[in-house]
Amino acid sequence: MIRCAVCDARVIESHFGAMVCRSCSAFFRRYVLTKKRRTQCSGENTCVINHNVRKMCRPCRMAKCLQVGMAPTRITDPIISKSTDKILGFMDNFPRLQNERSTVYGNLAKKQINFTTTTMIMEADYRISRSHIVRSFKEFFLTPKNNQNVLFDNFYTRLIVAESVFNVANSGTTQNYRVKENQETLPIDKFYLGEHKNTKLTDSQINILFEPFWMRGVTQVIKPLMELKLDFFEFTALLGLMLFDESYKGIDEECAKMCYQIRNIIFREITTYHSEKNNPCSKSFDRMADIMYALTLMEKARQLLSDQLTLFCLHKLNHNEQICLIFKETS
User: Fold this and answer.
1) How far apart are the C-alpha atoms of 330 and 112, rounded to whole Å?
2) Among 16, 39, 131, 214, which one is least packed by beta carbons within 10 Å?
3) Digit-coded pLDDT (tens) for 33-70
4) Contact 88, 23 (CB under 8 A)
5) Considering the domain 14-74 in this protein, what is its CATH number?
6) Whole-angstrom distance, CA of residue 283 vs CA of residue 285
7) Domain 85-329 sits in which CATH superfamily?
8) What is the enclosing helix (H) or strand (E) of 188?
9) How far are the Cα atoms of 40, 80, 177, 285, 288 from residue 270, in angstroms, in the given order?
């Protein structure tokens, strides 16, 4: 069996003058076309380049691409149009997204947070995440604004819970929810303290009212997701499927067709990803089913959060108007 000359994954065809996998081909194209890129290895230029390494050193990977004969002159199209580039491009933009979040949130990521702070973070994160989507998907950027608004509002209500649940699942504990990576909420008995300034409910009553949502979140969403053990590629694919959903109400027929086509591309990328990891065909089908199941879990988690926000409005507890409105319009 022919192996990728760069990362040792299974090879399907030749790319840019060498027998390399599609992942390395996509990386090579992006690296060559990116104007601002890191060109120096942070180590000693001896980093391990293998498909089993989650985050390969980009300069060392590029050096190996050139070493095995990949030619930058063979890249003629400045637009990344290969179907296998969707998820990989989305993944490559995540470090920039996290850096922007760190800048905006400041010290919030270093301490436990309550409900009010959580919704404040959501409001700021809405703008940051939308910019991330525009950078990652040219199809979204070219979509008319009215369709963009519908797609992203529906997506963001799911992104909120998806990242939180994924962080908890990968932390190995269900003790605390995590709004973002390394950012834990307070325990349930302190999470809602001080949220009853405009209501007759006591802190104890608020805990009794909202604790069932937390319990259902753990038993019905987090634990099942932990059992799936999705890796970052699969999680990113999950986000792509949630963004481009042709069933969202309010998008026009052309947008729905575009969403359908992109979802099919993402499904093919998942199959390619597992084939390059040398997984049998049955494994690819199983993981596809797991990702579809994860979609239903994310919808359940989104509904739990939406119900909590509805109760907050009903009982006149402190709440963020913009976030509540987004959930209301996408329910």
Assistant:
1) 29
2) 39
3) 776 667 788 778 888 898 888 778 889 999 999 999 89
4) yes
5) 3.30.50.10
6) 5
7) Retinoid X Receptor (1.10.565.10)
8) helix 188-191
9) 31, 18, 28, 9, 7
